[in-house]
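*Target chain*
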Amino acid sequence: MPLFQCDFFSDTLKMATSMTVILPRDPSKFAKEPDGSSSGKYPTLYLLHGLSDDHTIWLRRTSIERYADEFGIAVVMPNVHRGFYTNMKNGFDYWTFVSEEVPSFAQASFPLSARREHNFAAGLSMGGYGALKMALRRPEMFAAGAGFSGALDVVSESLDFLFEKREYERIFGSKAETRGSDDDLFRLAEKLAASDGPVPKLYQCCGTEDFLYEDNLRFLKHIRALGLELLYEEGPGGHEWGYWDAAIRRTLEWLPLPERVGAGPV
């Protein structure tokens, strides 16, 4: 199936960067228009990497290329280094890059649908945070978001060993500044629950041996208290690729594309 390594200049980051794109082979799996006709464009999953990885990691550690072809979905994997999908206090505007520039560039360069109901985000760890942030903060753009072993509480002590204090502050500022801001998923969920706009479908999973397990349970409790729809799954597993390979396949089965051949329960 077509696999593209894209090197391009980012107007947002003001530097050269990269992303990887997978396209299905079968044009019969193009997304459908509301009248049932073919759009000529693929539904798209924006698949996000974790803190210590880059845009190539999903291809190297999972079967995402095979899964994407099976389920008929394009996959866009951008590189944000250690930027936590955030407009950094002292650094690069990775939130604007991933939520605005990457979709715009990808849709202009490849046959990808721009319709909300055909666009989704998923990711692991830091990328789980980023994917749910995209769904919660840009619900008009993304119909679903999925986080695996997500770093969902960015003011939690569970993340302290991942950063030197100065790196955290370069990204978010102080924890006091971060709590309640648009980088806080708990606050974003509250704003979404209070809004009159579209509400994306949400999926969350975490291994019971994962160091982020308690943070994930706390986020789950918060989402359910707000009355938002979220499918939660857990099971044996740590912060590791065997768990995430199974999670990404499960997500592709779950994505809300009832017209797609091979679609699973929604």
